[in-house]
Structures are given as C-alpha cells and as structure tokens.
Amino acid sequence: MSDLERGVREICRSFRGDRTRMMDIVQAVQARYGCVSSEALNVIAAETDTHRVEVEGIVSFYTFLSAQPKGRVVIRLCDDIVDEMCGMRPVAQAFSEALGIPFGGTTPDGAITLEYTACIGLSDQAPAAIINDVPVTYLSSDKAREIVAELRRHGDPRRLVHRLGDGNNAHPLVRSMVHNSIRRKGPVVFAPFENGAALRKAMAMSPAEVIRDIKTSRLRGRGGAGFPTGMKWEFVRAAEGEPKYVICNADEGEPGTFKDRVILTEYADLVFEGMTIAGYAMGAAEGILYLRGEYAYLRVFLEHLLAERRRQGLLGKSVLGRAGFDFDIRIQMGAGAYVCGEETSLISSCEGRRGDPKNRPPFPAQRGYLDRPTAVNNVETFCCVARILDQGPGWFAQIGSRASTGTKLFSVSGDCASPGVYEYPFGVTLREVLTEVGAEAPAAVQIGGPSGQMVGPADFDRTICFDDLATGGSMIVFGPDRDPVYIAKRFLEFFAHESCGYCTPCRVGTWLMKKKLDALLEGRGEAADLPYLEDLGRTIKFTSRCGLGQTAPNPVLSTLKNFRTAYEKRAPARTDGHRAAFDLQAATAEARALIGETTAIY
Amino acid sequence: MSEETVSITIDGVEIEATPGQTILQAADAAGIYIPRLCAHPELEAFGACRVCTVKVNGRPQAACTTPVAKGMMVENDTSELLEYRRSLIEMLFVEGNHFCMFCERSGNCELQALAYRFGITAPRHDYQYPVRTLDGSHPEVFIDRNRCILCGRCVRASRDVDGKHVFDFVGRGHEKRIWIDAEARLADTPLKGEDRAVSVCPVGAILRKGTAYRDPIGRRAYDHRPIGSDIEACRPAEKKG
Ligand SMILES: Cc1cc2nc3c(=O)[nH]c(=O)nc-3n(C[C@H](O)[C@H](O)[C@H](O)COP(=O)(O)O)c2cc1C
Ligand code: SF4
Ligand code: FES
Known about the structure:
The complex is a heterodimer.
Chain A: H1 3-14, H2 22-33, H3 38-48, H4 52-59, E1 73-78, H5 81-85, H6 88-99, E2 112-117, E3 129-131, E4 134-136, H7 141-154, E5 182-184, H8 197-203, H9 207-217, H10 229-238, E6 244-250, H11 259-266, H12 268-282, E7 284-291, H13 299-311, E8 328-333, H14 343-350, E9 374-378, H15 379-391, H16 393-397, E10 407-414, E11 420-425, H17 430-436, E12 444-447, E13 453-455, E14 474-478, H18 484-498, H19 504-521, H20 529-543, H21 547-551, H22 554-562, H23 564-568, H24 584-595
Parallel strand pairs in A: 1-2, 5-11, 6-7, 6-9, 7-8, 10-14
Antiparallel strand pairs in A: 1-3, 3-4, 10-11, 12-13, 12-14
Helix pairs in contact in A: 1-2, 1-3, 3-4, 6-7, 8-12, 8-15, 9-10, 9-12, 12-15, 18-19, 19-20, 20-22
Chain B: E1 6-10, E2 13-17, H1 23-29, E3 53-56, E4 59-62, E5 73-75, H2 79-95, H3 110-117, E6 134-135, E7 141-144, H4 153-161, E8 167-170, E9 177-180, H5 196-199, E10 206-208, H6 229-233
The complex binds flavin mononucleotide, iron/sulfur cluster (SF4) and FE2/S2 (inorganic) cluster.
The site of flavin mononucleotide has 22 residues of chain A, from strand 9 and helix 21.
C-alpha cells in the first residue's frame, strides 16, 4: 500500500467513510497532499462507497480544490473590481515578476503557486490576498516583493503577519493582520451582549412563543432575499420529518460584502446564541455554520468559542440544564464557490456534493439538509434574533421603518474615504450614507453587490429598505472616472466564472454577455448590441434555475438603464454595412498560417 | 375523471391532472406539447435545459420539475415564452460544436428537431467553438463532447436504470463537461452498448458504433412531422363550452 493510499484511507476513516462528509474528506486530502490526485480519487471512492467520477465532480467544482499538484504555498490575489481600483494590477505584476511565473503557474521547485481569486471579503483593505489560509491586506508592489522574498526564506505564510489587526484579529487563535473597520455602531448587532442572556429569556418561553416574538418583530432575512424569518421558522417547525436542522449561511461571497466576517470576528457569540434559539424554537438538535473557505483563518477561533459555550452549558446535551433540549453546532468549511451561498447549493455542499442548487419545490423548510426540514439564515439574521429575544420584539420593531424593522450592516468600499462596516437603521437615505463614508464625488453606487443594481445620483435620495433600495449589505462607491461598462463586464465575468453550469441560461448566457461586453470594450461594438444585451439579460433572468442566474444580468441591465450613454458611445450605428464585431484577420489567421499565406486578406 | 384529480389550466384550456404529476406530465397526458430537452419519461426530472419554462400564475417555472396544484394557471404557447425558449435552444447550438450536416444523429436529434420546430435558421448568439474531447476507446460506444448539451440524461439513466453510474459531470460553469467513471477511457468503464444511458442521449454525443446513417432520409424520427407531434396527436377533441 502506498503512503498516499494509507493516508487518504485514514482521512476517510476519520469521517467513518461517510459520503455526506465528502467536503471535509477532500479538503483534508488537499491540505495534506496539495491536491486530490487521480490515485486519491480512487481511494476516496472506494472508502466512501461512491464512484470515482462523483468525487472528481466535487473536486473539479470548488476553486480551492485541485486534481493537479499545487505549490506548498498558494498565493490567491483577489481580482475583484474594488481591488483593481485600489491598485491590484501593479501588485499582480510584482508577484508575477518576483516569482518568475504567470498567474495560474507554480514555481519550478513546487514551492509557490500564484492565482487570482474572486472577492475574499477584504474590499475595505484592498488590494488583498490570501496565502494558504492567511489574509494579507493593503498590498503594494513593494509588499508583494517582500512577501515573495520572505516566503522564499521560510515558506511559512503565518510568519508574514508582522502587525496584528484590531479586536479579536489579535486573539492568539486568530493572529491576523485584518482590521474590523467598524465605523458606525448601532443598537442591534454592534452592541454589548452577555452570553446566554437571550437564550435564557427564550427558554423561559415556549418554542411557539419564541417564533411569535420573531414574527412580532417583523424581522426579515439579512442575506439578500428578505424573507420573513418568523414565517420560515414556523414552516420548519410545522414540517414533517426529524431531526430538523439550523444552518447559518456564512458563505458571504457577494463581491464587496464583508460584514459577516466582522460579525464572526467580534460578535460570533451573538450568532451562536441566535442559532441556539433557532434550534430551541424549531426543535432542532444540530446546527451547521457554513463558513466560506476564504475565512478559514477564523475557524480555530470559532471552534474555541463553541467549546467555551459547551463548557458554559450553552450548547451540547441539556442546554442550560433543560432535559430534552440538546443542541450543538459544527462548522462546515466551503472551498471557494460563490453559488454555495445560495441556500439549496449550500445544502448540497453540506451534504458532500457539488454545490448545485436543488429543484424547488420542495423547499428547504420542507426537505433540506439530508432531506430533513431545514432553516437557513444569514449570520446577521441570527444576531437580530438573539437581540430580539434579549430586548423584546417591540424594541426591535420601533427601529428602522415600518416594513423594514431593525438595523442593517453595510459593507462599504470603493471610492470613499472611510471604507468599512456601518450599522444603520433601515430607512436611511443613500445620500446620508455616502456623506458619512466620505464619498467625495460619487457618480455611481453598486448597491446589494453585483447581483443588486448600479444607481446614479438621481437615486441618491432613495431610502435603503426592503421596499426601496434593498440590499444584502454590499455598497461599492464609484467616482466619476470609473467606466460603468467596464464595471459591468467585470461583474459578468465573476458570474460566468461562478455559475454552477447546471442550467443553460446561466451557464451559456452569462458567458455570452461577458463576451459581448468584451467586444464593446475592445471597440467591436455595434448599435444592435444594446437591445441584444437587454434581450439576453431578460432571458437569463426569466429562465434561470436559481438566484445566481436570476440576478446575474443586473449589473448590465441596470447600467444600460442608468448609464446608457456610456454604452452608446461604444456601440455606434454603422452605415457601411460592415459588422464591427467581425474581425476578418482574426477569423482567417489560422487558415492563412496553414497555407503559409503571409499577406492579410481584405 | 377520477375523484383523485385536480384541474389546472394551460393556455385557457382546463385539464385534469393527478396530484404528484409535474406540469409537463399532465400536459403530455392531455395532448399539450411543452418543448423540452433534458426531461425524459423514464427518468427523474432534472430541470437543466429550461426549454420547458412556462408561466405559473404569472411566474416562470420549469414545467418538468413543478408539481401540479389545484387551480394553477399555466401559460405555455405564448409569444413571450416561445422567444425565451428559442434563445435557449440557440444558446445550446453555439455553446458546443454542432454540425448537423454530417452528424450521425441528424434527423433523429431532439435539438435539431426543436430548432426546426422553432423555425431557427441561424442563432442570434455568437458561436463559441469550444475545444472539447471525444473518446472512441470503447468497442461499442463513442462519446463526442462537442455535441453534448449537458442534459444529464445519461447520468440519470446509467445511475437509475442501468445501476452503474458510468457518467457524471465535472467542472463548473461553461467548463462543465460530461465525464466518465474512469481515469480517461470509456473502455475502462462497465458501459455496455445496450445500456439505456447510451440510447437516451437526445443528440449525437453518445452514439452506438455501427449504427450511423442506418435510417435513410425519409424514415428518420423527425423527417415528416415536427418533434412533439406524437404528444399533440393524443389530444382529446376539445370540449365544446
Ligand atoms: C448566488 C447566491 C448567493 C448567495 N449568497 C449568500 C450569502 O453569502 N450569504 C447569505 O446569507 N445569503 C446568501 N444568499 C441568499 C440565500 O439563498 C438565502 O436566501 C439566505 O441565506 C437566507 O437567509 P436570510 O433569510 O436570513 O436572509 C445567496 C443567494 C444567491 C442566489
Ligand atoms: S452526453 Fe448526451 S445524454 Fe449525456 S449529458 Fe450530454 S447530451 Fe445529455
Ligand atoms: S425539460 Fe424542463 S428544464 Fe429541461
């Protein structure tokens, strides 16, 4: 038996060969061997009673998993639009030159791999990268060269952290240079909190009364869709099937969003308390925190907090001494897939599958994780839950506006003086926020991340709430020099890359959109492209299977609506009958090369 | 009709459906054709191609995965929906490399037949000309990924009908591909020529060797009547109001 076979077997057996723990298995193999090789695929399949092609399908789905060997150190530079605005390109060049390899490459000694990655939740301290699990922030070309030199010296990404960030970023179990950048505190999330206080109040009531309180508070989900939380819980509670599950969605993949990272760094207990209350209210015994792979540096710290809660009787058997109420939480790591933030994809991933969304109905509340009734809620939603139980639903409901109660965290980045996290009551105008964040000359704001919409000054007096400008929290500010068409293209590139590929419109349509925007930006645009993009966008939105495709065209459609002249400039009407999009030389290049024709064809 | 049925309306026509049926199954039984590609009567619903998209009470839904419910108002044959479906079919054409003029499945291909039914002459989208692989290692079957539309029929048929799991998907987004349960060669899988996974492929991606061009033009599945005609032929005479 080879060493690899023995090692992979051992890993599989530590999860009892349970195929639903496939994400943990393949990640452990990747961590130990630097890849999930062809031989490893065979061993995993045999040990988990699956087929090799299934395991291969999973490994090839997630960006952080790989069948090919990678370097012992993997540098993943965030290539999000905000990072680009903050100087990512020269940093990329410096990395590439210092290492002597292009992006996607590995140094010949197998030491270091260099890659791009989508938003890593550090847009307020961009340009940023993650090196193995270690976030490095505020990069410059000089820093990039220093990092390479240091890694060459000691090869240990953890030793790249010379100055620790604020708050728990400096905790011995985190030791990260990340900053919280909490710029504005509000009464709901960023407020002092005593462990167990809300849970005790909840458990003094019946589960039905807890759900009633959540309904009275009119809390709506903070993950983007805004579904009433109390109603979701009532569905789960009433659904047939045991056990029931509570899942906290900490996938936070929407570019420009990082508020959940800050919550998990400073207020994780509030989240865990909210999850435990959810468990009590719905009669669930197990909770899962689905943590995006980019936040792996927080994992040990979060495990420690969970252990503390167990010690305090706030988790585990007979929570707070209540016989019959057992509830515990485990952490499930993601591995680089934005679509896994979509709740049914997230469930697929927790079950150890490709992160494909599921067909609905049945909804997760009826048949979710392992086909059992499941409530999936956002990190911030659970904070609200704990605070509602602690302070009362009436207290919560008087904050914010009538249909949008409570506060909302905004992750603000881009062209402004003070990027960071802000807690505001719902109903604040966009203009107030822009003033406070020090946006000097905002020309456009992407609100709700790429899947939201890009608005211009005409919309700055609108209010942020579920009925007007809805948002999951991302707010990217663009100054007057930024090009809306280019921004839209970068966002479409993101969606095309992150599409799971299950359904036709999202898989093919986002790619076609991206290519058409490329053509516009490269001077091959034509007037007919604009209605084409609108039609294509409508088709993708209408026919896509999940929320990714249903919102992916938004950056294009909203910029076409609000910034149309930027497109019109690039899509001239032609009268000579030529198609600008057709490049005769490029189209005939291969054929000309084959016949040895050196002159151009006209 | 039995007391077990519920009634739903498709394009203004009231039909009876059995609870547990999907909209697509209920429509088929009533002789109403809803275009589809990934759905197959012997296989579990999949919901990938989206060609069967209908409006249910005003909202888009895939007819092949949506169960019927009492009083549903379904729109199917509207110009809006036909336009979306046409665009989706065209996407599938430009995504792969489909050369109908010399494809062995020509005339028996569901994608080609749908294009004819929709009157598609040239796609509005730009051809992508992807580079994809083919595998002729197996003595009885070959797979040409250029023509695969990722419908997942072979995956489901191999797993649920043949009990093998020879096929599954790898990759993500536009790099998603149909793959096999072996390192590289179809010959190294337990696939047999007579497996259902082979015959369910709607296009020319999985083909049985030695069967090419066996049906002469004029005797192929869609030479005389458009795809869906068999379903429409079952339509009971419309009730007079
Ligand atoms: C592509 C996509 C990505 C998503 N990403 C997240 C995410 O990272 N975090 C999150 O809480 N919700 C995300 N959602 C929304 C979830 O599907 C779900 O609605 C949410 O987790 C429910 O929690 P809530 O009701 O507390 O908001 C995403 C949705 C889509 C379609
Ligand atoms: S090979 Fe055929 S049956 Fe399989 S997914 Fe592709 S088109 Fe569908
Ligand atoms: S037939 Fe319904 S999605 Fe393909």
